[in-house]
Each structure stands twice: as C-alpha cells, then as structure tokens.
Recover the amino acids of this structure.
C-alpha cells in the first residue's frame, strides 16, 4: 500500500549521511502561540462582559451562548418543531457554526475559541508556574509526571477518554427522552457563563473540580468529559485539513509531543487526525524544523493504479543539503 | 537516544544557522499516506477559520434567525425582527401555551393570549398586583412558591380552552 520515504529508512546507506533541513524562524512558534492567546483572550473578555451584563442589566441567559444546546434540542426540534426549554435560536446558530468549523478545521473551536478550554489552560499554566517556584510542589509534580508516563496511567487515560462519548450520549438521549437539557445541571460551560451570579450548583461544582484537576492535567474536561468536543471529533473526521508530519524533516525530538495539551503522540502520526486534537497548533509552533509539521489540505484525487504513492516532501529535495 | 536529540536541538537553537541537522541514527515513524496534500499557510488557515463562525452567525442574524431569549423556532421564523429580538430583545409572541418561556414578560403573555389579564397572571404567582408587566416570568417564578413555567403553561391551556 504505502512505502516509507527512503530518507527515513535507516537501513539504507543514506542513513549514515547527515541530513540538514530548513529551520523555522526562531520567533515563528511564539507568534502562533501569541496569536492564539490573543484570540482566546478576546473570547474570554466577551464571556466576562456577557456574565457581568447578565447580572447588572439582565442580559442574555447563559444557555443562549451554548452551542451544545443546539445538539441537545435537535431531536425535539425535528419531531415537534419546538426547542427544549432554555434553548434559543442562538444556540442552534452556534451549533451550526461549530459544525461548519469542525468540518473545515476539526477541533479548531476547542483550541482557539472555547472559553472553558482557555481557562483550563490558564489554570494549568498558573499551576506549573507556582510549582516551579516551590520545591516541594515541584518534586510532587515531577513524581506525578513520572507516574503519568507509566503504562498503567496511559491505560487509565485511554479508558477515561471514552467519557466524552458517554456524556454526549447522556446529553443527547437524555434531552430527547425527557424534553429537558439534562446535561445543563452539570454543564461547567453554563456555570462559567453564570459565574458572576455565584450560584452554588452541580454545574459550579463540576467547574471547580475541572479547574482543580487542570492544575495537574492539561484540559481535563476536554479530554474526558466534553460532549461538544465529541461532536466535533465526529464531524472533524470529514475535514480535509490537518497537521501533517514530514518524516524526512522530522528531528524526532519529542518537542511536538510535549507541546500537545491533549497528549497526542504527534511524532508517531503522519496526519494528526486524532479525535482529541484541538487544532491549537502548539505542536506546529514547537517544531523547530520548517517542514517537520505543517498544516495541509488533502486534495481530492482518484486512486492510482500504478505504483504506490509516497507523500512527497512539501519542500523539494533541493533544499536539503547532504553533508558527509 | 533522547540525549542525542536534546543535544541536536540545543545545537540548533544556539547557533544562528538556518538549517537543522537531523541526528544520526534517528528512527522517526515514516510518513505514510496516499493523500495528495497541499500546504496551507498558517495565517490563512487561522484567519479563514476565525471568519467561519462570524460569517455563519452574521448570516443567520441577517436572516432574522438569531434570538438570545426564549422562543420556539417556529414562531421565530414568522416574526423575525419586529419583536423577535436579535440581541437580547423580547421574544416573539407565541400562539401556543407550550411556547411560553421564562424569559417572556407578563405583558408578552397578555399580548399573546388576549383572554388572560396581567392581574390573573400575577395572582397565579401570588405576586403583588402592582408588579410591573415588564417583569419576566422567570423572575416571578423565583419569588413565588410552588409555581413554575410548566405549571403556567398548564394553567394557560386551561384558560384558553375554557
């Protein structure tokens, strides 16, 4: 079916040669990162303004800005023409927007726009900053990180990631069966948007639990419980755009793996089409090789009958210098 | 193995060279795909994806299908802008008690069901009769005991049927 690129096959004589690949400009990764953080900051500001407005002048309800509501009400809408309580047309519109976004950019919404994801990232980074400065906490974190690298934890992690699908099924089937938003009671998104009201609810407890977990695990809710992320994962499978790794330019340095907030082993993928990918481009930003990781668009083609095709190097071989 | 990688990366970042040397003996997982792919500039990718949700929301707003307050889609389609509210405005008047939602004001319920008076509604909620008719039903629910929106719907069905 496919054959490996010859420059990546260490059994060939060329493997002894020292291969040089173009290097990415030093500040490139930072620019990508800061662009993302700027967009995330703008969304958080919008959410904060919305939350304050709701308290001060009775603005829109939190549910109005919940894209998941559109999916929860889908069955009721199709069968009765009505939405379930607390779902407004804005939720349906946002659901369509998220679907279209997922069709094009997979989990881009999660990585760039989702305020809950942003806050989890912020908490995780703040946690790291604190533990870096406090030696006992630093030692504890290292111990936890060592534990996270074990096969047992990886197995637990794999099992827990099924939680997203369970929560999605609960939210959709529960809403269809009862005509109410069953997930709303535990939805940290709603708690986040209503945070200015300081109402102690199950959703608020879930939000706090998520943030506490985020101190130790990056994006715990996104990994294990987000039903909206699960929907996008399904739809995102149809997306022609993905981060692609070129093995001929890959240093095998693990920087992309370490940068990934969802712990995807990027350097073992050809195209990062994992359902948990949030499209944050942290891996691309971390890659020091210009051609190692790129965003690519798969072109529609017909299968070839002749020889097996190999993914070509986006930058032609003339850019590679072989120095013996 | 890992040491080699780190050394290589450190060398690469320390030197001003515009190229990186791939370490000897590395064994990255080979690139294997049958897809024909084309590189997308990251700037274009990000800008395009940021535009998509904005355009979708703007498109629906233009079509009058955006409301952040409670109403059913069926009633919203018919009355897009006049009282459907595109940005937190009042929802469209429902023709069916099942469409009554907590975000509606007493006046909107009165307008939607001419046989009902504001006094009757306030009485149902045991609210003071001088309560403004601009009060939302959900606010009345909070201040009342045992009355909620589903109960209001049932009561409205009885009143309109009678």
């Amino acid at each position: 079916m496919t054959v490996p690129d010859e420059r990546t096959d260490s059994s060939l004589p060329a493997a002894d040669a020292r291969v040089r690949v173009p290097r990415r400009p030093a500040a490139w990764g930072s620019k990508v990162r800061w662009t993302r953080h700027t967009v995330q900051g703008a969304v958080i500001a919008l959410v904060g303004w919305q939350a304050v407005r709701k308290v001060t002048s009775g603005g829109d309800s939190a549910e109005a800005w919940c894209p998941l509501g559109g999916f929860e009400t889908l069955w009721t809408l199709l069968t009765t023409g009505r939405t379930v309580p607390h779902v407004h047309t804005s939720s349906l519109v946002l659901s369509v927007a998220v679907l279209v976004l997922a069709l094009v950019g997979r989990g881009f919404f999660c990585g760039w726009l989702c305020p809950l994801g942003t806050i989890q990232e912020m908490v995780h980074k703040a946690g790291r900053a604190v533990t870096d400065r406090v030696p006992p906490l630093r030692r504890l974190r290292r111990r936890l990180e060592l534990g996270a690298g074990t096969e047992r934890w990886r197995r637990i992690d794999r099992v827990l990631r099924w939680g997203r699908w369970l929560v999605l099924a609960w939210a959709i089937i529960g809403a269809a069966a009862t005509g109410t938003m069953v997930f709303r009671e535990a939805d940290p998104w709603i708690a986040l948007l209503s945070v200015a009201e300081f109402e102690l609810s199950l959703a608020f407890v879930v939000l706090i639990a998520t943030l506490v977990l985020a101190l130790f695990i990056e994006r715990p809710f996104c990994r294990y419980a987000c039903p909206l992320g699960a929907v996008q994962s399904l739809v995102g499978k149809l997306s022609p755009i993905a981060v692609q790794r070129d093995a001929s330019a890959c240093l095998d340095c693990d920087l992309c793996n370490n940068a990934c907030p969802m712990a995807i082993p990027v350097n073992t993928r050809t195209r990062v089409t994992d359902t948990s990918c949030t499209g944050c481009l942290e891996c691309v930003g971390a890659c020091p090789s210009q051609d190692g990781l790129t965003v690519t668009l798969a072109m529609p083609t017909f299968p070839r009958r002749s020889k097996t095709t190999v993914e070509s190097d986006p930058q032609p071989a003339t850019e590679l210098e072989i120095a013996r | 193995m890992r040491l080699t990688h780190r050394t290589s990366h450190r060398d690469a970042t320390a030197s001003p060279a515009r190229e990186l040397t791939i370490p000897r003996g590395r064994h990255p997982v080979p690139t294997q795909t049958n897809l024909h792919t084309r590189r997308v500039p990251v700037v274009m990718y990000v800008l395009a994806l940021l535009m998509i949700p904005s355009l979708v929301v703007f498109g629906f707003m233009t079509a009058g299908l955006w409301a952040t307050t409670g109403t059913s889609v069926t009633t919203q389609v018919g009355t897009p802008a006049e009282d459907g509210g595109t940005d937190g405005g009042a929802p469209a008047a429902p023709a069916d008690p099942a469409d009554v939602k907590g975000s509606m004001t007493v006046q909107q319920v009165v307008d939607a069901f001419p046989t009902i008076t504001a006094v009757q509604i306030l009485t149902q909620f045991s609210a003071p009769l001088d309560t403004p008719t601009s009060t939302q039903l959900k606010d009345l629910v909070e201040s009342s005991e045992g009355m909620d929106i589903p109960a209001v719907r049932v009561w409205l069905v009885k009143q309109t049927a009678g």
